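Students often ask why we bother encoding 3D structure as a string. The short answer is that it lets us treat folding as translation between two languages. Here is a chain of 325 residues written in the first language.
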Amino acid sequence: MFGSVVLDTIIGMLALFTVLGICVTTLTEIVLSFFQRVRARYLYEALELLFVGKLKTLGTQDAEFLQQVLDHPVIKAMAPPGQRPSYLDPAMLAQVVIDLLLRKDDATPLDISLEELNAALAKGIALIPSEHLRRALSSLLAAAQAKVTTTQDLLCAFKTRLERWINAVMDRAEGWTRRHAKAVSLGCALLLCLALNVNGFDLMKGMVRGDALHEVSMKMAADLVKNGPGLNQGQACADNNDKSQCQFNAALNSLQALPQGAIGWNTLPMFLQKDQPNAPAWFLYWLFGVMAAALAASLGGDYWFKILSQVIRLTGSKTPPDPKP
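And here it is in the second language, the structure alphabet:
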């Protein structure tokens, strides 16, 4: 279906993007580890939206129940002292809400009748200062009360509805976090491609010409398919205390093993060379090439490795075809 040159070029480019993606993925993880508070902030904003109903001009009274949730021992145990948690399980959070509602009724026992439990939950909801939260919990409790005959049924039904409601809002916080991570990943990819002078167009030209880059990239593809995206450093990085840093160094070493001139600033781009009459055009060529490489690398090593594996499988071989001499 494909000619050998086309197939080799596709496989080689996928291998190069896989290694670049590994660099970007690990670099993004390293950067995000220093900004873990960003995730905690997004989670807190989601909790404000959940328990108060607005993100600005919060009143002290409106946020009283939210503060009780954050001060609960179960929640406080999810973060280091003095810090807010960056993740909360919806089922755990729902149980904390029920616990706080029942505690408002002077040590309400769990072995009470269905009517007494209904009254205890309704009383706990009525004592919540935030009107938004009172209305939401009252609606959830009314839905849970339908067709239940025992105390345990009511608790299970109420908790299930709480979990769904909490999970829907938590998904928004996860969306904020994912968008932030994508922006960080794209920024890391662009900085990496600029620092290493990675021009996607030049890499493709080198692959098509069948020079040394072609041979190295095909060998890289074979190693990736054989050993996985660990670049032969999987066990070494697993035993390393800083796994992300180890994986980044391993991927960077693989890039540095590329033939001279494929990447790096030893060979200047055409627009920086002397007596170049078409410098503006060559600059645009270089800029778009770097941006294309950065955009591809920002998708991550796992993304490109899956495509590489699928292409190799479609060729009917477990290993990439050997480069022609």
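Translate back mentally: The chain has a mean pLDDT of 79. Keep this in mind for the problem set.
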